[in-house]
Amino acid sequence: MGIRMGGLQCGAFRWFFLVSIILWVFLCLPPPSPAHSGSSEHPNRHTKHLKPCKSHGYAHSALNCPKLHGHPCLVCSRNGFKFSWGPEDKITKVLHPGEAATLELTLTSSCLLEKLDLWLTPSLRPFITEISPDPIPRLFPGEPFTIALIIRIPDATEPGTYSGTLHARCKMRTIPSTLPIVIEVREEITPPPPPPPPPPPPAPTTGGVINGYVYDVNTKAPIVGAKVTASGEAYWAVTGADGRFFYFTTAAGTFNLTVSAQ
Q1: Which residue intervals of the chain are DSSP H helices?
Q2: CA-CA distance, 210 to 258, in Å (whole number)?
Q3: How many CA atoms does the CB half-sphere of 29 hold within 13 Å?
Q4: Which of 43, 100, 137, 256 has its CA 20 to 30 Å from the CA of residue 181?
Q5: Distance between CA atoms of 97 and 29, rounded to whole angstroms?
Q6: 4-8 LR contacts (CB < 8 Å, sep 24+)
Q7: CB 118 within 8 Å of CB 81
């Protein structure tokens, strides 16, 4: 009887000790964090080796977030990572050999990107000679950032269409969104010289007053009432009491006067 009671007491003690250990472990475990829970706010993901996401404050393993380890962060997985080069999906510029231009782009990102490198496909590198700034030190979520592309067309460039894409790379991973750029090089057509100016109009004829004095060559006395004409009967006048005459003309030139009795 004593042995049986001892066995029951020993077995009860073992069960009590085991239950106490399980209860102690359960009470010491921390509650699940929101980033790792299967709630509707954040989808359930494999969260092994996750690190803090600087963009949103949640755990991530980051394809297009700050560290870019291999997968989208949890917030970007839910909302979709977005990267934009600006309002246009494609850029087209028409330039002539020897011409230069500046193209401005406004970049936005839904996640924080650090040290964003920009690079062009080889077909565009002879023409887009500079990107400023490059690299971009930091692109904050939702904040527009403007960059400038300096385009210079060499003088010896053959007319044609040159196309390629602009890429962004962060932490050695290329962002899927690219920007197509098309540069059309057209031969500059020299316009024909302007026609020569018309000849100046002829100088206006200047007229004036023809006047004179008619007198008797013997007596030197003035002749009154003599008729003086020029160019036939086009111009004529009659001498006055003092032998003088005058008339107006609008013609220029030399006139032969004829004096006759009236």
Answers
A1: 2-28, 74-79
A2: 13
A3: 8
A4: 137
A5: 71
A6: none
A7: no
Give the tokens for residue 106. Answer: 């406004």
> Can you list the residues of the chain whose pLDDT is less than 50?
1-9, 25, 29-52, 55-75, 77
- Lay out the sheet containing 128-132: strands in order across: 83-84, 100-109, 145-152, 128-132
24-61 residue pLDDT tens: 545 554 444 443 333 333 334 444 444 445 544 444 43
pLDDT at 233: 59
The whole-number pLDDT of residue 126 equals 94
Structure token digits, residue 129: 């000679």
pLDDT value for 123: 94
Task: Supply 214's token pair.
Answer: 């008619």
Single-letter amino acid code for the residue at 169: R
Which residue do the tokens 């592309």 mark? 149
Burial (0-12, 13-18, 19+ Cβ within 10 Å), 33: exposed
Nearest to 161 by CA among 189, 111, 127, 195: 127
Question: How many Cα atoms are found within 13 Å in the side-chain-facing hemisphere of 58?
Answer: 24
What is the torsion angle, in degrees rounded to the nearest 10, for the CA atoms of residue 234, residue 239, residue 245 and residue 250? -10
Residue 254 is predicted with a pLDDT of 75
